[in-house]
Design brief:
This protein is an alpha/beta fold. It has 9 helices and 11 strands. Strands 1-2-3-5-4-8-11-9-10 form a 9-stranded mixed beta sheet, with helices on both faces. α3 crosses α8.
């Protein structure tokens, strides 16, 4: 399912996919100005809050589990930054509890599926996150236990893949390809939020922002350094790749040698949520201001990389 609406300047929004059991609710919304104003796409895969009744009834404690899994209201930060900069924006509506868009299709704990049948992807080796309970379909949370009342049907798993995962990544890949075709280069900022991190052993304050580039595999070193410096200068304690280096989204869509760069950004929820880490606080605007400035700052560099041509991009990679 795909629905498009066009407005002034040929900007359009695209509502695509379908959340199983939702009676037609789109799995994502893509706002993709045409022609694009900046070579930057903001994507938010984990802030979805549409829980169909069927899903809620199959969960042991849907309120608490959903809250723990969500990148709660980080989509509000990304939407403000996109509106202010005219950057493209992709936001998932399906909740992470239903399916994790930052995991590979085969990264599934097959013991969750009735009969152990993981469907067409069942031969895929699972990663350590899946073994710890946070795979394609989350199974358990630390200190919480099992999320589901019973095993899932393979048909349910397939419906989640085809209704949510496949169309989301198709939309993401298409938007980046169009952006690169126009600018010569493109940057994906994959926006997440994290719970407060523990203090460091050295006594230094814990980071409140973590940048991930899969240890320099998904993004030009110059862009990653520029993002680190910008957010540090804005007053944030920033870490790089630890403890979050980026997942399937970056692995699948980043191709720096071909001009497509991807950077994951984790903002601590204490920066923009209330003391219970549930609802937005007045500080959400502050974080949105930081992201807005970062988008503008990086967009200039990405545009310059695209204009300089492929040989310059190869030199940048070789020099890192």
């Amino acid at each position: 399912m795909e629905r498009k609406e066009r407005g002034a300047g040929d900007s359009h929004s695209e509502a695509g996919g379908e959340i199983p059991g939702s009676r037609g609710k789109a799995a994502y919304i893509l706002v993709d100005p045409a022609p694009s104003a900046l070579p930057v796409l903001l994507a938010v895969p984990h802030a979805g809050r549409h829980y169909p009744d069927e899903l809620l009834q199959s969960m042991r404690n849907p309120g608490l589990a959903g809250l723990r899994l969500e990148d709660r209201h980080i989509d509000g930060v990304a939407k403000l930054a996109a509106r202010r900069t005219s950057a493209a924006l992709l936001v998932a509506h399906a909740p992470r509890a239903m399916i994790d868009l930052n995991r590979a299709p085969g990264d599934l704990d097959r013991d969750m599926v009735r009969g152990g049948d993981g469907g067409a992807q069942k031969q895929t080796l699972v990663g350590w996150r899946t073994r710890s309970g946070l795979g394609l379909i989350p199974r358990r949370l630390p200190g919480f236990g099992e999320l589901w009342k019973g095993p899932l049907d393979s048909a349910d798993v397939e419906a989640r893949l085809q209704g949510v995962h496949v169309p989301y990544h198709r939309a993401l890949g298409g938007a980046l390809a169009r952006m690169r075709a126009r600018w010569g280069a493109a940057l994906l900022l994959d926006i997440h939020s994290m719970p407060p991190l523990p203090a460091r052993f050295s006594g230094a304050p814990a980071p409140v922002c973590v940048l991930g580039d899969r240890f320099s595999m998904s993004c030009s070193g110059g862009l990653a350094a520029a993002a680190f410096d910008y957010l540090s200068d804005a007053g944030l304690m920033v870490a790089h790749n630890r403890p979050y280096a980026g997942g399937y989204v970056l692995e699948r869509h980043a191709a720096p040698s071909e001009g497509i760069h991807a950077l994951q950004i984790e903002f601590c929820r204490s920066l923009y949520l209330d003391s219970q880490l549930i609802e937005p606080s007045e500080h959400l605007q502050v974080v949105a201001d930081m992201l807005t400035g970062l988008v503008r700052h990086l967009a200039e560099q990405v545009a310059a990389m695209g204009h300089s041509g492929g040989s310059a991009r190869r030199w940048n990679l070789a020099a890192e």
